[in-house]
Amino acid sequence: MIRYNEIKALPQEEQNAKLLRYFNDWSTRFTLAERVCNAMNQAILHLDVLPGEKISEEKLASVFGISRTPVREGLRRLQDLGLVTLIPNRGAEVVVFSDQEIQKIGLIRIPMDMVAAQQAMYYAGIADFDELERLCDACDKAVQDADLFGRVQWDSAFHLKIVELSRNELLLKYQNENYLRLQYMGITQFTKDQDSLQMVSLHREIVAAMRLHDEKRVCQAIYNHSAPFHHIENIEPHWFKASFE
Fold first, then answer.
1. CA distance to 120, 137, 166, 197, per residue, from 112 (Å)
2. Residue 80 — very low, low, confident or very high, per pLDDT cuts 50/70/90?
3. Domain ranges in the chain with CATH number 1.20.120.530
4. Does domain 99-243 have CATH number 1.20.120.80?
5. DSSP structural state of residue 83
6. pLDDT class for 32, splitting at 50, 70, 90?
7. Which CATH code is given to the segment(s) 4-94?
8. Do residues 118 and 215 make contact, with C-beta atoms less than 8 angstroms apart?
9. Is the pLDDT reported for residue 64 higher than 50?
10. Domain with CATH 1.10.10.10 in the chain
């Protein structure tokens, strides 16, 4: 696996072709603004548009064959999702998350994952736990294949499945938004293969603890899984770990 800043920007013609393909992949049942948002989301997560890269409204309108109005609305939606920063009257710039921002999101994400797992373990049945194990398998395979995009996608699917099983609609809404940012962070952060294997192996520990309805063990497993990524092992406030130790 490699760091995003080791990837060269695509030649303009190749990038335009990919953007148009993403745009056309979305059915005309969606509005033009939704198609712009979804297409650019895919391009950003696949690193076809790199962190820090500027996105021109005029260019996108030309590539997609539409006016600048739906392009502007699509980029505004991307900003709401936390993936770009708007540049007035020009377009947008793909965000680059600082270490401090990654830490702050971790201090929100990890407790919410813990709450979701604690609730889900009492609602989930054997078939649900088996489905989580299958998601573990998919994530493991992505790591073994050095498929960074697949690994990030399956990791998100695993955690969001737990949130879904919690039957907490508000929590699911918040975590859906968080995990879109987390996918982008996962794509753009340097991750060694061995570190990835160790992190995804903790998925199975989470499932095992949930099967046993062991709240303390599941919280510890979630912390061990996510804290290294967010670099919060030595910075979290005392109440953070005290809540499950």
1. 12, 24, 11, 23
2. very high
3. 99-243
4. no
5. S
6. very high
7. 1.10.10.10
8. yes
9. yes
10. 4-94
